[in-house]
Amino acid sequence: MGYCGLDFGTSNTTLGVVDGNAPRLIALEGAETTLPSAIFFGFGAGRAEVGRAAIDAYARGIDGRLMRSLKSVLGTDLIDQDTLLDRNRIGFRAVLQRLLSEIRARAEEAAGHPLDAVVHGRPVHFVDGDDAADRRAEDALAEIARAIGFRHVSFQFEPIAAALDYEQRVEHEEVALIADIGGGTSDFSIVRLGPDRRRAADRAADILANDGIRVGGTDFDRLLSLKSAMPHLGYQSPMKRPGLLAPNGYFTDLSTWSKINFLYTPKVMAEIRQVQRESARPELIARLHHVLEEHLGHRLAMTVERGKIGLSDQAAFDLPLGWIEPGLAAGFARPAFEAATDELCRSIAGMIRRCLADAGLGPERIDAVFLTGGSTLLPNVRRAILDELPESRVVEGDKFGSVGLGLTIEAMLRYN
Question: What angle is formed at CA 344 by the lines to CA 210 and CA 221, rounded to 5 degrees?
Answer without folding.
Answer: 115
